[in-house]
Design brief:
The complex is a heterodimer. Chain A is an alpha/beta fold. Helix content of chain A is 40%, strand content 17%. Chain A is built from 14 helices and 17 strands. In chain A, the strands form five sheets. Chain A has a seven-stranded mixed β-sheet, with helices on both faces. In chain A, helix 2 packs across helix 10, helix 3 crosses helix 10 and helix 11 runs parallel beside helix 14. Chain A is globular and about 75 Å long. Chain A starts with a helix and ends with a helix. The mean pLDDT of chain A is 96. By secondary structure, chain B is an alpha+beta fold. Chain B has a single domain, classed as Sufe protein. Chain: A. Chain B is built from six helices and three strands. Chain B has a three-stranded antiparallel β-sheet. In chain B, strand 1 and strand 2 form a beta hairpin. In chain B, helix 2 packs across helix 3, helix 3 packs across helix 6 and helix 4 runs antiparallel to helix 6. The mean pLDDT of chain B is 92. The chains are: A alpha/beta, B alpha+beta. The interface between A and B is medium-sized, with 18 and 18 residues. The structure holds pyridoxal-5'-phosphate. The site of pyridoxal-5'-phosphate has 14 residues of chain A, from helix 4.
């Protein structure tokens, strides 16, 4: 693969920031978009645009076909068994909330529990807390070890018969830990629990195969997979997804409506009320096509090589502490510098053209567990190169000088 | 660029803050916190006949929030409380970039103007000011500048 050619596909990478070459290390928060995605959006709005599912006229047909075509692309991307196992949502967050309110809330009660982990994103913590207030269920939390790995011994102990649902992240957005989700799913199923996997940080980087994993639900966001914002995916194993109660009521999700009672459409439409993010979904399909042309193993290996290169470079700077050091982790570097606040690190990086994220990364419980108020995070994507890492490393001596 | 945001003056105030430490007893005090970034500032005042006789602070957080607190104590000490409210508005204008450099007086105002170039960070500089004003007005609940 020609990395320079890949970099040319991403217009934002050609931009300067604060007068400097851009080194973008915030793909974990949101990925940059290849030009083909932007072009597809423009073309769709210019030549194919109409509402979907409801018309007989030409444009309505074109947009409906283009929209539904993406469902098949997502099915292929996830290796899902059926196309109607793919539900379009607004993002990971909405996908999790949908399952919380329309599956876990109606089926679980006071004597039940769900199991999450200490490394979850707030979007995989707060929805459960909200519904626990309504149905009285218990929330159990699997702790994280010092190196950032999930404490699997604790998982085994916490997975008791009252645990009816497990919701766990595939890859930690903060630590980069890749969790043993296959083992977790198998153990949970043996326990009679259903499993949701938060794939927001896995889908952009590695093969995610629904039939191989066997999870009941898998969720991720298009904007982290080089697609537009405002689109997400909820995958559900058909038999389980079919048990999910209607989420929002409205157009498209019904079969017939009368004041005596309404009957509901079949999957996937039953869970997609109202006009969807049509253009966003179509742009997302273009992003998936683009990704499919770049071997996923090459992409992931390239990211890991950069991670390795970055970690070797960091060895020069003992003042820098990295959170999450478990072998086999994904290319995310969450770091703190003794005596320098993460926001100051972020601003100095930014002045040198380096975009890192600072704060708690929506994982406050994890910050508390590692006893840091905030950290800086460099997340690596396949369009990053060694020059980006060198640029990042070159800022550290400036930070030490400034705050030394 | 670096020297713009963290110009020497700001760094000096960060490294060696002025008027630092708890004031006990005091006539009023307040605690401000920006929960998303974790910056914290406590401001303690002794007000006598509507004059801010003594003001001190303590806190933890980024260089800008702590230096801004230290610089603030330099600017407001011995001020009439009513004048101080005017200054608060003025600092707010500076942080919004609404004043030209020719309209600024003194190196401390220039330091605040340097922070104005970084819109994401002006909330850090406003935190001690809002905390001070709230302390003087007896409002002490949930002071934050993250949603202002
Ligand atoms: C692990 C993880 N889960 C969930 C989310 C939420 O995704 P979104 O904001 O796109 O709904 C994120 C995004 O930051 C994430 O990293």
């Amino acid at each position: 693969m020609d990395l320079n050619q890949i970099r040319n596909d991403f217009p934002t990478l050609q931009e300067e920031v604060n007068g400097k070459r851009l080194a973008y290390f915030d793909s974990g928060a949101s990925a940059l978009k290849p030009r083909v995605v932007m072009d597809r959006l423009a073309q769709f709005y210019e030549k194919e645009y109409s509402n979907v599912h409801r018309g007989v006229h030409y444009l309505s047909q074109v947009s409906t076909l283009a929209f539904e075509d993406v469902r098949g692309k997502v099915q292929t991307f996830l290796n899902a068994a059926r196309e109607d196992e793919i539900i379009f949502t607004a993002g990971t967050t909405e996908s999790i909330n949908l399952i919380a309110y329309s599956y876990v809330l109606p089926y679980l009660g006071k004597s039940d529990a769900i199991l999450i982990s200490e490394m979850e994103h707030h979007s995989n913590i707060v929805p459960w807390q909200l519904i626990a207030k309504m149905n009285g269920m218990d929330i159990k939390v699997v702790p994280v070890l010092d190196n950032g790995a999930l404490d699997m011994q604790a998982f085994d102990n916490l997975l008791t018969p009252d645990v009816k649902f497990v919701s766990i992240t595939h890859v930690s957005n903060t630590l980069g830990t890749v969790n043993p989700v296959k083992e977790i799913i198998e153990k949970a199923h043996a326990n009679g629990s259903k499993v949701l996997v938060d794939g927001a940080q896995a889908a952009p980087h590695m093969t995610v195969d629904m039939q191989e994993l066997g999870c009941d639900f898998y969720v991720f966001s298009a904007h982290k997979v080089f697609g537009p914002t405002g689109v997400g995916v909820l995958y559900g194993k058909f038999e389980v997804l079919d048990q999910v109660k209607p989420w929002q009521g409205g157009g498209d999700m019904i079969e017939t409506v009368s004041f005596e009672g309404t009957t509901f459409n079949v999957l996937p439409h039953r869970l997609e009320a109202g006009t969807p993010n049509i253009a966003g979904v179509i742009g997302f399909g273009e992003a998936l096509d683009y990704l499919a042309k770049i071997d996923v193993n090459w992409r992931y290996q390239h990211e890991l090589n950069l991670l390795d290169y970055a970690m070797k470079g960091l060895k020069e700077f003992p003042q820098v502490r990295v959170l999450g050091t478990v072998p086999g982790k994904a290319a995310v570097i969450c770091f703190v510098i003794d005596g320098v606040h993460a926001h100051d690190v972020g601003s100095l990086m930014d002045m040198n053209g380096v975009s890192v994220r600072v704060g708690h990364h929506c994982t406050e419980p994890l910050m508390k567990r590692f006893k840091v108020p905030a950290t800086a995070r460099a997340s690596i994507s396949f369009y990053n190169n060694k020059e980006d890492i060198d640029q990042w490393l070159s800022v550290f001596p400036k930070i030490f000088k400034f705050f030394g | 660029m670096e020297s713009d945001l963290y110009q020497q003056l700001i760094m000096n105030h960060y490294r060696e803050p002025h008027n630092h430490g708890k004031l006990d007893p005091c006539t009023c005090h307040a605690f401000g916190k920006n929960p998303l970034c974790g910056d914290e500032v406590s401001v303690y005042c002794i007000v006598d006949q509507n004059i801010l006789k003594t003001v001190q602070f303590e806190g933890a957080g980024c260089a800008i929030s702590q230096a801004a607190a230290s610089m603030m104590t330099e600017m407001v000490s011995q001020m009439q409380v009513d004048d101080l409210y005017d200054l608060y508005e003025r600092i707010d204008q500076i942080l919004k970039g609404e004043l030209e450099s020719g309209e600024l007086s003194g190196e401390l105002e220039h330091a605040y103007a340097a922070i104005a170039q970084f819109p994401m960070r002006t909330k850090c500089a406003r935190l001690p000011w809002k905390t001070l004003v709230n302390a003087l007005q007896g409002k002490t609940e949930n002071i934050s500048t993250e949603n202002d």
